[in-house]
Amino acid sequence: MEKNTFTPGERVIFTTEIHNQTSKCIKTVTFALYIHVQYEGFTPSAERRSRVDSSELLRQEANTQITPFNTTKIVSTLNLPQVLSVSSGMRDGEIMSTHYELVSTVHLPWSLTSVKAKVPIIITSAPVDPDSCPRLEGAASPKSQECQN
What percent of the chain has pLDDT over 70? Predict the structure, then answer.
């Protein structure tokens, strides 16, 4: 990937290079975007507890014919949903944190195993375009707090 920070609705373009060092043909490669949400809380007896919930947001499958002892590049695009939680780390007092992961999986048809590559990505809020902010006549600074960021 050229970058790892995206906004909701943006396209994620990435290249996967697969070196097939086996004597068999690889036929399927899967790409998926996962969201991992960690919740923190306390039991009635004041014991700290956390729970991680993961789900698949997007999935794409490439049917390939990667021949034995060959290298193949696959260029893929995932269109992010328009509404996504912003990536965040767990801070004091926060009860929830969110992070995203792009996972490429190479299925080995002659085996029960697969090879996975995981890349973290960051989702930020949409950047504010300073040209779209209304200005007060004769004022040098933006009118709203949102436009100052």
Answer: 82
Percent composition of the chain: helix, strand, coil (DSSP 3-state, to 5): 5, 55, 40
Domain spans in the chain, listed from the N-terminal domain onward: 5-148
Dist CA 149 CA 139 (whole Å): 17
Residues 74-121: tens digit of each pLDDT: 999 999 999 888 988 767 767 889 999 999 999 887 888 899 999 999
Domain topology for 5-148: Immunoglobulin-like (2.60.40)
The pLDDT of residue 103 is 96
Query: Looking at this protein, which amino acid is placed at residue 145?
Result: Q
Give the integer Cα–Cα distance in Å for 128 and 120. Answer: 24
pTM: 0.75
Residue corresponding to tokens 């399927």: 28
- Start-to-end Cα distance in the chain: 27
Strand order in the sheet with 114-123: 5-6, 114-123, 96-107, 26-42, 48-66
